[in-house]
Amino acid sequence: MTDTGRLHPSDNAGPVGGGLAAFFLRRWHGEVPLGQLFWRDMIGVGSLINVATTVVALLILAAKLPIWWAFAVHLAPLPYNLFLYGSVLRTADMTAAPNANALKLSATLWIVLASLL
Prior knowledge:
By secondary structure, the protein is mainly alpha-helical. The chain has one domain (33-116). The chain contains five helices and no strands. It has helices spanning 20-28, 34-62, 67-75, 78-94, 100-116. It is elongated.
């Protein structure tokens, strides 16, 4: 806490309630089970977002719109992908799960494929 009695972001008070901030904080701080983070969030939702943005990017190209629009749409999920990748690595390092290293390797392969395709 600061001298003024207000919480500072570095105080790590943790998310109270729900919301978008809580969604990201829970994953970044390892509060979501590793299997759920990897299989549901990264492989399921992350891959679905990547496929959807790739399809939209291809539609932009087919409509003969500026190529940079397609490029921007295709790369739009990259920050979220990197967040998921970092969250999986951090959570795997915090847990004693026997498959943590395998999930870290799989997450690395996923981020490479997600970035290239």
